[in-house]
Structures
1.
Amino acid sequence: MASELEYLGADIHGPLWSAHVLQDAPEKIVAVHRAYIEAGAQCIETASYQASRMGYIEAGMKPEQADSAILRSVQLARTAAAEFPGRRIVVAASLGPYGAALHNGAEYHGNYECSFADLVEFHRRRIDVFANAGGYAAPDLLAFETLPSLEEAQAIGEALAPWPHLAAWFSFTCKDENHVAHGEPLRDCASFVAALPQTIAIGVNCTAPPLIRALIAETRSVTGKPIVVYPNSGEGWDAERRCWIGSNDPAGYRELASSWFAAGAQIIGGCCRTRPAHIRQVAEAALSINSSSG
Ligand SMILES: [Zn+2]
């Protein structure tokens, strides 16, 4: 969402980029959803990754504005999906980790200076908004993503407890072939969330593509639940030069997606720096697998 909004000329450099775009240029968010559905996406994620009461208060806005932004993001996704009446498009509510609301990259190490109770409360606030939403503003599932630690997954599990009927996926950001960003084994995180009644899929996002095959195997070793992976493009962030380096060729993404399907993933997408052209490659990979398996 962020990469594509930038290509459409939206300003995403503020601390709460999604908030500004939701308010000032909602048509751009619909345009991004539309581009992904046209590319073959069967599931789209709302522009709500950073929308939280805590983040809004820090940015000088009213906490209630966060709640309405969250609901608005679902409505915009539904608006785009409604343009394709013959397709069944799943709307997943994007819920970033606590660190994403801090705007300092803390989600990539997970060392938060807050208590477990604070973490539970942070997630509970947002879950309540989605859980109480009706009709057009209700997402099909909650996508907890870029989770850096077992502790944060546990906090979400506690925050979700009053809502056993909700559907959720849990996706972790990983630093190597076995460990989430904060250092716990991915398999420990996966087996914890697999036991939650809300969990419909478990996986990995915002992670380098070369690590994904091994991480799918780690997840599969502890659960039979569907596996979701949406890595970054092949580029890496050069912190010294403050720019992205390496290849971002969508053509290579098809082969990667095929290998991830073959390794046991059921849901595949793209995170940072991927574009609709990448998703088109994934859709073609899925199509060729479905036709070869009859
Ligand atoms: Zn990412």
Note: The CA atoms of residues 162 and 219 lie 26 Å apart.
2.
Amino acid sequence: MIDIGANLTHASFHDDVTDVIARAHVAGVSTIIVTGTSVEESKAAQDLASRHENLWATAGVHPHHARECNQGTLGAIKELAKHPRVVAIGECGLDFNRNYSPHPDQEKWFIAQLELGIELGKPLFLHSRDAHPRFSQIVKSVNPKKAVAHCFTGGRDELHAYVELGLYIGITGWICDERRGRHLLELVRDIPPDRLLLETDSPYLTPRDLHPQPKARRNEPAFLPHVLKAVAKALRRPHEEIAAETTRNATAFFGLNEPRPSAPEKRPLAA
Ligand SMILES: [Zn+2]
């Protein structure tokens, strides 16, 4: 399986990230896309991905950090995106739930990153929280070729709008939350099977029905099969089938099978 969104550069993984990756592997989660949320975190994600065989990274700035963006930000992301281990631009988008950055800043840097993804021919890893319909309007007007609405938690109208826009949909352990994720049990059936992706969003969103709860309630990629089983049950389909389909979708979405130039540090010296 492929965890398409894990924040493995988060401080809570600082001491044991190698064990976390090993546990994921044992659990059948062979590939992890490490989310970049700022220029600094994206650089760290890229470094981590360079050191582990089946790790990849995104490069981008989360809407929470939009207020910290400046003229140099886009160039820095563009530079990071040249690395063969960086497979998407993001996470970027709009977060009108926490509102850590003013909306005009969020929109400006969201649009800029969408355009960068298009320019570089990279898929986009998008964050949208309480930002529909503005989020949809922007995606529609900039029109990226390939993008995923990661950690989808919204309602029916929002989901249908995203599907209509051609977005892939990322489902997390939110679906295991009997208080706020119940609606997703029905809604996942409206996601086209070839556009469904799974993720943990570690260390956040530990499935609430996971027993026993992990230490400090830290989520990790090894728990992705738990999310898979919840999704498969909601779809009333065998989890092996959903695992195969979502793995195929993620491989195609991020182009993981495509030949890549070797990493700059590994390039042989000219004779
Ligand atoms: Zn997010």
Note: The beta strands are 2-6, 31-34, 55-59, 86-95, 124-129, 147-150, 168-171, 196-198.
